[in-house]
Design goal:
single chain, alpha/beta, Cytidine Deaminase, domain 2, 507 residues
């Protein structure tokens, strides 16, 4: 039992008191003495448990509107004093500093206050000084002191109490110290980011939750997800979500965000292999699947409509990894849950971050998420022939898909349906040829189809190949020094072309 240290005195000063009463009562039953401040002291005493006021220990009142309460040598000496250093013990005896074995403290809700739109002064007052100092001091001296630094640690600490009583091992104290430094680093990052604003002078990014994945992109790679998956989805059933699942889910969600009409999409390796917008979710599914029934095998499915039984019965005919929808009819779920490994997700109405972070070399790249979605107003006709209303509609549809496809990318679409795409090619011509061949392999008639490109055409060869395949309208961002050559070809051959002025590279 030499590894165990007894908790005799606890300093408790918290903002969040939910479920704290159980811990306080358990500690009291174990003979632990309490020191506290203000509201927490009143809370402890309301439980019928005696509690010493910090002010009676320090002989100083809470001053400066509560800004200074615990910042005193009798508090920090009791936390930082090393129990195995005779000089420390002698000084603690000399200055009548009690040993503090447990610190339970949390921090003012800085992030919540900022998110609420509060005024500057209210935000500043939520920058915790005493709390952060107590956390760091207790965590530093984990050899002798237990630190519970947030309400998230109440449950694991209570579990320790219930199993071992008011005593802890060095391993346990070190674990709580690690969690405490996680709390303090996240808190300081939030404050820095608030003051830094849009300056981007440094990157401070933290995530409080980590999920160990089965592996990364490949079995020999370790994979971890940092984020709150449950904040975005309700998982109804299915196996553990993998690294690659998460990449596909992210791509699917971002794609579907651009569609308002009832739409179904099938994704494979972060690219759409089938997309259709239709009046009914059943028709949207059937026509999305028709886009590439081969690639759909093992894919990720997403729709922005409630899935009914009829649609579920059709979906149930194929093998897929993940399905995402805003909701499911009860009888639809009865169909979809027949195979237990399927990951079935309900997407919540939650906004995604507006920044993207990606590691490169010995650093990271940060950029704004591509939130631009072109409308008819963005499409400037540059040819003698103007596109028809149906062609404009299809170009808007196709442009949304090409925006979310790996560059170089070409999308061919007709009547609100993805006919085929060529993605991730080193040449735009190769991407187009790939799309045409694929469309023909699934018996699509490209006469009257539209073509969307994620970037400009450096030469007129793409519009020529597309015209020969039956394409009658083209949407592209423009920006090449040879734009006019593509326009000239279209004018000579009766093809409509619009330029948006917005490139959508995705690497």
């Amino acid at each position: 039992m030499a590894d165990y240290k007894k908790i005799k005195t606890a300093l408790v000063s918290v903002y969040h008191k939910d479920n704290l009463d159980v811990i306080i009562r358990k500690l009291h039953a174990e003979g632990v003495q309490f020191i506290s401040t203000g509201g927490t002291q009143s809370f402890i005493e309301s439980l019928g448990i005696p509690c010493q006021a910090v002010e009676s220990l320090t002989t100083y009142p809470s001053i400066l509107g509560g800004r200074v309460k615990t910042l005193h040598p009798k508090i920090f000496g009791g936390i930082l004093g090393r129990r195995d250093v005779p000089q420390d013990i002698a000084q603690m005896d000399q200055y009548e500093i009690p040993e503090i074995d447990l610190v339970i403290v949390d921090l003012y809700p800085f992030e919540d206050t900022v998110a609420s739109g509060a005024e500057l002064q209210a935000i500043i007052e939520k920058i915790d000084i005493g709390g952060i100092s107590l956390i760091r001091a207790a965590a530093k001296n984990y050899k002798d002191v237990v630190i519970v630094a947030s309400k998230a640690q109440y449950e694991p600490f209570l579990n320790q109490l219930n199993e071992f009583g008011a005593q802890t091992t060095l391993e346990t104290r070190k674990w709580f110290a690690k969690e405490a430094f996680g709390v303090s680093s996240h808190y300081d990052s939030a404050i820095f980011n608030y003051f830094d604003g849009d300056s981007a002078s440094a990157l401070r990014y933290t995530a409080n939750s980590a999920k160990i994945l089965r592996y990364g992109e490949n079995p020999h790679q370790k994979g971890i997800f940092y984020g709150d998956f449950n904040n975005i989805f309700e998982k109804l059933q299915g196996k553990e979500i993998s690294y690659n699942n998460l990449l596909d889910i992210d791509a699917a969600v971002n794609l579907m965000m651009d569609f308002d009409d009832v739409t179904f999409a099938i994704l494979k390796h972060n690219n759409a292999c089938g997309v259709a917008s239709r009046p009914s979710v059943l028709d949207a599914w059937k026509d999305a699947l028709a886009g590439d029934p081969v690639s759909a095998f093992g894919g990720v499915l997403i729709t922005n409509a409630v899935i009914d039984k009829a649609t579920a019965e059709e979906i149930n005919k194929i093998f897929f990894e993940v399905i995402i929808a805003p909701d499911y009819d009860t009888d639809a779920l009865e169909v979809l849950t027949q195979k237990k490994n399927r990951i079935i997700l309900v997407q919540k109405n939650v906004k995604l971050p507006t920044k993207q972070i990606r590691s490169v070399l010995n650093g990271v790249l940060v950029q704004d998420r591509d939130l631009k979605t072109e409308t008819e107003e963005d499409m400037k006709t540059v040819t003698e022939k103007a596109p028809s209303k149906s062609e404009i509609s299809d170009m808007i549809f196709a442009n949304k898909i090409v925006k979310h496809s790996k560059s170089n990318s070409i999308v061919l679409a007709k009547n609100g349906q993805l006919c085929a795409s060529g993605v991730g090619q080193t040449s735009r011509v190769d991407a187009l040829k790939q799309a045409i061949e694929k469309a023909h392999s699934f018996n699509f008639d490209l006469n009257g189809a539209v073509m969307a490109s994620d970037a400009f055409f450096p030469f007129p060869d793409c519009v020529e190949i597309a015209k020969n395949a039956g394409v009658t309208a083209v949407v592209q961002p423009g920006g090449s020094i040879k734009d006019q050559e593509s326009v000239d070809y279209c004018n000579k051959n009766g093809v409509a072309m619009v330029m948006t002025g917005f490139r959508h590279f995705k690497h």
